[in-house]
Amino acid sequence: MENKTVIDHAERAVTFHFPPQRIISLCPSLTDTLFALGLKEKIVGRTQFCIHPAEQVKNVRRVGGTKQIKMDVIKELQPDLIIAEKEENPKEMVEALAERYPVYVTDVENYTDALRMIRDLGQITGTEDAAQHIITRIETNFASLKPTRDVRVAYLIWQKPYMAAGNHTYIHSLLEKCGFVNVFRDFPGRYPTVMEADLREEAPDFIFLSSEPFPFKETHRNVFHEQFPDSVPLLVDGEMFSWYGVRMIKAALYFNTLIHTIEQQRK
């Protein structure tokens, strides 16, 4: 093994033993992708929210959540590389870890960033061919996407208060790829808090109620249907819209189905 120094997505120099043999992942979509790269035997730690691939993560030690981790468990696992995500993991937590271990930070705000992230994960783990295979499958599936036009949507991720996906987010990037117009794209902040009055004023054609991080259900859809009669509330799969990485292969197919459903409802 040799020491390798790379620049991560936060413009930090990270030096680690290459190829890494004991990897901890602190973001669910990164964990999912690392397994897809064939690193099953090298992933020693993950968060409680890293639920995919279900059968394989069961055998990987939990180190806490994405916002708060157990330093004693990290120490036990003796990682030679920790992979974190800028939006998912607090800066203070990442900095505390980086004082003791090599920490590579990813940063994904759009579709292009997501493909770069997959490529870079392949480079830092010595799985470039597997990474390129995943990227090719994603690009092929997204090339088959049939975008809609002039469909105005609000994508809600939380309630009490309502929070929406705004501009400069991966979710917004995928909404655009699908041809949707994000009614909250010009609101301040990446995930703006919005009021009922905002939803009524913007009057989106559809209100997307995401399955995560807040788990919107049918009961919520019914409430939205009553509160906002000028918009159609629709439950959507949050993993397809927010899990960048290998899950993007399935996401493109999901979006085609979603677009078809919406266009049928508009007729």
From TrEMBL:
<dbReference type="InterPro" id="IPR054828">
    <property type="entry name" value="Vit_B12_bind_prot"/>
</dbReference>
<keyword id="KW-0732">Signal</keyword>
<comment type="similarity">
    <text>Belongs to the bacterial solute-binding protein 8 family.</text>
</comment>
<feature type="domain" description="Fe/B12 periplasmic-binding">
    <location>
        <begin position="22"/>
        <end position="267"/>
    </location>
</feature>
<dbReference type="InterPro" id="IPR002491">
    <property type="entry name" value="ABC_transptr_periplasmic_BD"/>
</dbReference>
<dbReference type="InterPro" id="IPR050902">
    <property type="entry name" value="ABC_Transporter_SBP"/>
</dbReference>
<protein>
    <submittedName>
        <fullName>ABC-type Fe3+-hydroxamate transport system, substrate-binding protein</fullName>
    </submittedName>
</protein>
<dbReference type="Pfam" id="PF01497">
    <property type="entry name" value="Peripla_BP_2"/>
</dbReference>
